[in-house]
Amino acid sequence: MTRRRQIIEMLTAEKNRLHSARFAMKERIETHITWLEKELKDLDDEISGFIQHSPIWKEKRNCLEVFLE
Description:
By secondary structure, this protein is mostly helical. It contains 3 helices and no strands. Helix 1 runs antiparallel to helix 2.
C-alpha cells in the first residue's frame, strides 16, 4: 500500500508538471505518466489477487463493500 501511495503521488506531480512543461519535455512526461499508470494497475491487480487468496482480507473487503453500499 505504501508503494501504491507513492505511485499516486508521482502521478499527480507529473500530471501537474505536464501543464507547465515546454513542448520538448511533454513527451517524456507523458511517457512517464503512462508507465506510472501501468505500474498502478499492476499493483492494484496484485493487491486484488492477495485479497482474493486471503480469507481474512476477503471477508474484510466484503464487510466494507456492504458498509459502503
